[in-house]
Design a protein that fits this description.
The structure is a homodimer. Chain A contains eleven helices and 26 strands. The first copy, chain A, is of the alpha/beta class.
Chain lengths: 416, 416
Amino acid sequence: MTERVLILGGGFAGLTVAQGLRGKGFAITLVDQHNYHLFQPLLYQVATGELLGEAITTPLRHLLPSYGVSFRLGNVIEIDLLRCQVHMEDGDVLEYDFLFLALGTVTNFFGNKTISQHALDIKGLEGAETTRSRLILALERASQSKNAEDRREWLHFVVAGGGATGVEFCAALVELLQNLVPNEYPELDFREVQVSLVHGGEALLPGFANNLQKHAATKLRRLGINLLFGTHVKDYDGQTIICDSGPPISARTLIWTAGVAANPSLSSLTVPKGRGGRLLVDHHLRLLDFPEVFVVGDLAIFTGGDACPQVAPFAMQSARYAAKFLCAQSAHKPLIPPFGYHDPGIMTVLGRLDAVCQIPRWHLRWYGLSAWGLWLGLHLYRIIGTGNRLRTLLDWSNDYIRRRTSVQLLRQGRDD
Amino acid sequence: MTERVLILGGGFAGLTVAQGLRGKGFAITLVDQHNYHLFQPLLYQVATGELLGEAITTPLRHLLPSYGVSFRLGNVIEIDLLRCQVHMEDGDVLEYDFLFLALGTVTNFFGNKTISQHALDIKGLEGAETTRSRLILALERASQSKNAEDRREWLHFVVAGGGATGVEFCAALVELLQNLVPNEYPELDFREVQVSLVHGGEALLPGFANNLQKHAATKLRRLGINLLFGTHVKDYDGQTIICDSGPPISARTLIWTAGVAANPSLSSLTVPKGRGGRLLVDHHLRLLDFPEVFVVGDLAIFTGGDACPQVAPFAMQSARYAAKFLCAQSAHKPLIPPFGYHDPGIMTVLGRLDAVCQIPRWHLRWYGLSAWGLWLGLHLYRIIGTGNRLRTLLDWSNDYIRRRTSVQLLRQGRDD
């Protein structure tokens, strides 16, 4: 009988598993709560209006039928590892012989309800698009305001978290404001606009070499961003940010990039978990005690403590490995050696014409225009589909050459 | 003192007034509930995923500052003609010396609450984008369905209204389904897909010549659309459509294009009104008894009964006239002759490679490929901005040449 494979999640990891298993004789279904694959590394640009959501998404049904993989739209609410069943929100039950957990992570507000209610989150497409509308709305509110203090609150944008997402978003946000305010809001004074970044650590971009961290900080300061190190946002009511040190900050917009946690669909799983709710796996990426369950991408963490960075290259390498391992096992071939991650390097863009790059294998660390060029080419290359590449190019020319904001529509949520 | 001009509405009419008054020494503010101008004639293509919403919208702040016009985002809730004041939803009061009413129309459900609750409406950007998501969702639901009757209900799409919008949407919907279902939903049988058009009159496309109406009906039938003439939708609970004649129709999707009514912001105005709540104007487009108030676009209707078609050319001509009239009056020049509408003709596209065209001035009526080519060129020419033209071209090549649907994302509202 054909073995049934269920892949939960259509991100980098899930999609790579589907590609790896195509034509190997499995009956494969991929489940996702969205009908699209999202190119997450550029999501922050959707939030700042540089790119359209459509430019970085690919409908899963464009891809999966050609892999011979079925698609199932829906939310997973429970995974029953003992019965090999997945329960869907609509009541359906899906059964599997092999399961790939590739559900990724969501924003972690560390249990703070008021922050999660009032802060913006740019981890998913909907969050990024809402953020874009709210940024524009803040400018509209500021321009309608008749009171200087109120106006300054609307014009103060605060980002929590100095990792790659926070830094990339901050730099892009300043460019958005530089494009928009002087040209399109003549009633506003650009000198009243303020962007602040609150970071718990003492240096931006954890994981990068010291000189690159310093370059990023210098660059953000030169863009006019107010950097607050060594402090955490503790509370936010939509108007006042309380940090664990320093005075309260008045701002109507807080963008939260300060942490991720495992997808909540996994909360009912009673297996041992690692930091951030990640699932402990052996060196073949199998869930402990459940050899028919593979964990790939951001959710996986090795029992031994080896590094499992939550980045696209890890997601794709782990997915490729797990698919290969299952194929070897099903074909009764000798098992392949344990998984090892080959770090291709990390890079973070710092607005227009600047980026930081670090390639450990070649002992390379550098920043500036050439790093930016590499970033641009690499991301354009990795976006799926010619149409999306053209769309991205079109929007980037607008941004980087004409210095105009591509996407500036206020959609629903306008009045909240 | 500088005279204050208030323009309510940033559609074709409002924007043309703003252009007409630029540099004439007025202090002008344009008010709209959205921050964008919408190219409405292509909105149905947003609903069928042929075009991105962004391709047919232009942020008003891209345009207005260069005209020297201020922009005010917000909802108008009351117009006080006696005090020359406009009350905004947020409590603000705007004052004027001259007022231009260019708020346009909204979908008219003729007071039927259950229809307005369950039917989809493609008159605004949000309605069109929701419709697109709901069409995709219907296919997903059909593919998950385990019951043939239930599946057929999800695969039956009904359009109410056989005017230009209904006809254009119907033809585009069939193409969407032809693109998607066979390629991306291998679990569905395309023969189970059904599109029906319910029309109150005896011929489609009121206003067109008889042979063009017949051609449109033949074309839609050839596309497989089930045409129901001489009947009106009376009720809809989300699953069963009740018409005033014939048996009930089972369908999970009803798209309503069967009527428009004046913008509800005008409901509090106690001036005499015409059909559909439109405002009676003299032949200088001034509101009766209020010579400082001009009515332009879809809202205007002449007291004498002369035709005021609710189309873009009328909106632009009336707006250009009213702006010119006000300039002449303010400069104490002789008043210009009464407004007369020059009908440039009407056209309706019938899917790929076909359209009907009628140019009364030259006694021309024709259909087919050349009409479609004219339609394509004209619409591309009239879209504002190079970026939007390129985006539209890109999406149209996708649709018309590669026969792929450009936009296929399921956004929020997915689970309703």
